[in-house]
Amino acid sequence: MLRISTKPAYDAREARLRALMVAALAGDATAYRAFLRELAAHLRRFLGKRLQGRPDDVEDLVQECLIAVHDKRQTYDPSQPLTPWVHAIGCYKLADHLRRSAAGGIARSDFDDEADEAASHARDAADAARDLAKLLARLPDRQRLPILHVKLHGLSVAEAAGMTGLSVSAVKIGIHRGLKALAAMVGPRA
Amino acid sequence: MKTDALIDAIVASGGAAQTRSVRRRYAVMLAVGTVVTALVAMSTLGPRHDFAYAIALPMFWIKLGFVASLAILGTLGAFRSGLPGRRVSALLIGIVAVVGGIWIVAIAALVESTPVARGALLLGDTWRTCPWLVGGLSIPVFVAIASAMRRMAPTHPHRAGALAGFASGATAALVYAFHCPELAAPFIGTWYVLGMLVPTLAGAVLGARLFRW
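Output (structure tokens, whole complex):
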């Protein structure tokens, strides 16, 4: 396993994060915010080392890990060290991410080329549906499928979660991020 | 979404949580699954007819100790595999040691017996049904552990599935031991272990699908 920091720094961070987490679990919102902020910074370094050259992916993954830490916070046993718990969640989400991007990688680069080519031509406003499909195709599955199911096909978030195998919060986040990404794609050209 | 905005949203949804609730839920589900398995076993199979006689035999207690220790190690291992960052290697070594222990007793029994009797020690009267009954009886316990596991966070879903399967197999074997007429260590070390491996393998395969989060 890659070491992130020296032993004293590791111990100091462990003590700090653990104290904040214990206070947060007892209902201290200020401690929870401080915990999540420091955890985000730590995860950014931890995941950054493992995902070099993909800063956007790192931030996505940091957010996914924060949500996972929140959703699964009751699986932390306060009598145990916190860092192994956090790292195990980080590694699990990282492996999940790599698996997904390996599965979607080839298809996505094809779509990227096609979309770039299309962008250089004048857009036909009447062809909005085709454009939307093309833009959607540029999104990763975890954003595209929730938007497709919930926003275009009108399913509920829970149904979309069942169909895609994503968690309910992952579907909501996928929709949110996907819509933002779509807006960013269309925005500058409009 | 900016990470800071996400943090605000998370904090707003509340951070207070009962970390003991995971353990309680696991224990309750395990108890429910075990009771269902025991009810199914006692209503369909019943206890062995010579139960009063059997409990006077040391080998009955060795058999019970064997399956009970595997059930304890397995359920503890399945529980830990649902908590990120917890190690299960010591429990796995314990499981291997217990199985190794019954094999030593089994080999001693085989060496001491005559060649003619060895087949009977190994196959008993019920070797055809034993692994399948143990595997079948493990289903209620597996469902119970799996439902507790879905609230947990297994970071190695295959391993968590295998341990959940093994735990349910060992618990089922513990229940089955009250019905089963076999007492020979070679039989226990072979067919009981195979019976526990059936749900272990099924759990390893199912775990990857059931325990994603």
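Helices of chain A lie at 7-25, 29-50, 55-71, 83-120, 128-137, 141-152, 157-164, 168-186.
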